[in-house]
Amino acid sequence: MGAPPSQEGPRINEQIKVREVRLIDQDGENHGVVGIEKALTMATEVGLDLVEISPDSSPPVCKILDFGKYKYAEQKKANLARKKQKTIEIKEIKIRPGIETHDYEVKMRSIKKFLDEGDKVKVTLRFRGREMAHQDLGLAVLKRIEADTAEIAKIEQEAKSEGRQVVMVLGPK
């Protein structure tokens, strides 16, 4: 035989195992510290539940309310908080050292769009063949990107060489 299953959420009615509680009634009026029996009878008289709001305080704070409505309101609050949070993604833009002006402008529009949406941008500069002998051209392209995004982005990772490519990460300001 295992332990009884633990209950999710606050304790209600007979689950509250203390002698005294600080009671708040259904109208929000504070009754001070009362015995648990009196609190339970007050809750049953009005046809509502006694819900432990703050179990860590001494004595615990309990409120007389409709537990179903309370659970529903808490669930709505949690869903709203989950809806408002934004996950930050890392978008990747790949470029080459000999990038032409128009191609560069198209990539810059994408970078600016990603940064405006709150995402991070990983700029990957890939060298092929003999381009490795002219890494200064590639680094010049990265410096140009850095300068063009200076007012809307901060550099989270400086340009770092990883074999045949150089990686730089930009984040929104």
SSE pattern, N- to C-terminal: EEHEEHEHEHEE
> How far is the first residue's CA from the last residue's CA?
56 Å
Overall SS class: alpha/beta
- Summarize the main sheet: 4 strands, mixed
Order of the strands making up the biggest sheet: 2-1-4-3
Task: Report the C-alpha radius of gyration, rounded.
Answer: 30 Å
**Residues in β-strands, percent:** 25-35%
Number of E-type strands: 8
Task: Tell the overall outline.
Answer: rod-shaped
Q: Specify the number of helices.
A: 4
Quaternary state of the chains: single chain
Mean of residue pLDDT values: 88
- Give the uncertain stretches in residue-range form: 1-5
Helix percentage: 25-40%
Characterization of this structure:
- It is a single chain.
- With 173 residues, this protein is an alpha/beta fold.
- Helix content is 34%, strand content 31%.
- It is built from four helices and eight strands; from the N terminus they run ββαββαβαβαββ.
- The chain has helices at residues 36-45, 67-84, 101-116, 135-148; strands at 20-24, 30-35, 49-54, 61-65, 90-95, 120-126, 153-162, 165-172.
- A four-stranded mixed beta sheet has the order 2-1-4-3. It has a four-stranded mixed beta sheet with strand order 5-6-8-7, covered by helices on one side.
- The longest helix is centred in the middle third of the chain and has 18 residues, at 67-84.
- It is rod-shaped, with a radius of gyration of 30 Å.
